[in-house]
Amino acid sequence: MVRHPAPSRSAGRYAAPGPGAAKPAAALSRATKAEASGTASAAASGAPPGIGEQDIFYFREGTHAGLYRILGCRFTQRGARFTVWAPDATAVSVIGDFNGWDAARHPAAARADGCGLWEIEIAGVQHGQRYKYAIRTRGGALLEKADPFARYAEQPPATASIAWQDDDFAWQDAAWMRLRAGRDALASPMSIYEVHLGSWRRHADGSLLGYREAAVQLAAYVTGLGFTHVELMPITEHPFYGSWGYQTTGYFAPTSRYGTPEDFKFLVDLLHQVGVGVILDWVPSHFPADAHGLARFDGTALYEHADPRQGFHPEWNSSIFNYGRNEVRAFLLSSAMFWLDAFHIDALRVDAVASMLYLDYARQDGEWIPNRNGGRENLEAIEFLRILNVAAYRDHPGVQVIAEESTAWPMVSRPTNVGGLGFGLKWNMGWMHDTLAYLREDPVHRRWHHGKLTFSMIYAFDENFVLPLSHDEVVYGKGSLIGKMPGDEWQQFANLRLLFGHMWAHPGKKLLFMGGEFGQRREWTHEGALDWQSLDGDRHRGLQRWIEDLNRLYRTRPALHEIDFEPAGFEWIEADDAEHSVLAYLRRARDGSWLLVVANFTPLPRANYLVGVPVAGRWRELLNSDATLYGGSGVGNLSACETVPVASQGRFQSLNLTLPPLGVVMFEPEGPA
In the chain, is it the N or the C terminus that has fewer CB atoms within a 10 Å radius of its CB? Predict the structure, then answer.
């Protein structure tokens, strides 16, 4: 059942439903009551949930969040019931292994209420049999379409849906789910390891790992390095492996490339058991034009806009969902709720939100249609995103919905009742671009680009930000992270350790794409595994150890994560020393405890560098990226430093520090002298 507890604390003040969302929230509650009634009746008879008048009402209204329970292929005592939306079809039948793929054998009947749904119950359908819908268009063409609500599909390049009866998976993550529901996620550490499952690791012969094999290895690896979450690039079913999952055809099916739906549940469950959350990339912005998919599903532009100025995405050569069509909104809303409900997913990272918000995205003048007010905002997409976010936070305690939004659209992660989109978090693309641009500069020139380091703090608290170093930064000729760093090999690794240290200390949650944690030199490709043999090198192992220690400190020091989204959690000590390319700042926890961060972005060690601090006494050096343990030169402060009564940066006590070359050091006070 779709649950309706009070809004969870993890939504914070940024996702609680407000007056602006009251109508869709109420409608969703009513839709769920209708679904609950149908489910109860069905349970008593041993049949799957029936489709009642209220279901149809909320389907047409665009607020039904549980369509996956009543549409598609659902097993009955006699066989299976098939229900598909094809309002413009003249005839629909089900073809499959159970009838020799004969379109004449099992014609469906259109519902008399005119909702566009076609239904049929077929005796003898068995779990694991293949099927499609044969749809006759008004023009006389016969289309063979996969089920939009299929739970499982053939391995590509085959395209049939598979009749799949969910088993009673024995979830073992009850403790995790209770903890998640009570956690304030915005005040908790979130260190995300982004993974493309097919190219993280492979068998020795190059074949793909299955969900269960990957689960065991991934759980051990991410817990060893201290990450709090794994983000999976889309595992929703997709025909073209090279799309990395971003061209989705199966919005309710984990890809069969790696195993069954139960195998995927095993992966999520195991990660939860070891204390790691699971984030799923979800793509409601566009879909591919493959003949078996959603495109022109009943011979008309059903899921997409008919006008290519609204329904075709020129950048990705794909179709754009028609968010103004209520049934399409209900389809997407049900998909999002399905992954949160059926698979215990902890967060959805919504892909390409900017392309949804702007009607002129990737278009020239004359290639787009203004909204009813004459503007370029996609008003229907905005409404959909708000409905989605209200529903997700209300019905699934502790989840997050994260926007990959690359523009300056205001209040992406602010509540709907004050005009926001209602997301919990937003990727900080500006920080990523500025920081990488700065690090690419030869250190001798960095003094002229100092503002790229400090600019992010001007807007750091405008949104709830995730700092992303994602797959997008290591593909299409951009090279690897280590390859972006200037200098010889030693300097490249020092620069990368410096980047990670500054990133982990900067306000905002963290995301790092696989391979970056050990400095893979080769640009990422989906064909083949990461270059794990790199870990035979000392510098690669040192970098990996640095990530492990950063994560450990990040998780154990509230100053680094507790007040990520308020100015009270950050204070500049030295922001303007462009001449020496040095930054110094404090992070603070709610209990008033401090953590000092000082970063030297040049390869010159700096002795006797005064840094004013708020607390007198002994300050312990917690981490030093230049330690020999990480492959550095060993320049540092002998593990601690005492304050001196010398004024600096407006403070009466200072630390006289030695700053390592291309290094970052972190300190905390041990108490008064």
Answer: C
